[in-house]
Amino acid sequence: MLHESPELAVNLSDVRKRYGRTIHALRGVSICVRRGEIFGLLGPNGAGKSTLVKIMMTIVRPESALGEVLGRAVGDPDALARIGYLPEHHRFPTYLTGRQIVEFSGAMSRVDRPTRKRRASELLDRVGMGAWKDRPLGSYSKGMRQRTGLAAALVNDPQLVVLDEPTDGVDPVGRREIRDLLVGFRDEGRTVLLNSHLLSEIETVCSRVAIMVQGRMVAQGTIDELTASSRRYEIIVEGPPPPWGSDHASVQAIPAGHLLAAGVAQASTRLIFLGLDAQGAQPILDRLRAESRTVVAVQTVRESLEDLFMRAVTDPDTGLIYRPGAAT
Ligand code: ADP
Question: How far is 312 from 218, CA to CA, in rounded Å?
Answer without folding.
Answer: 7
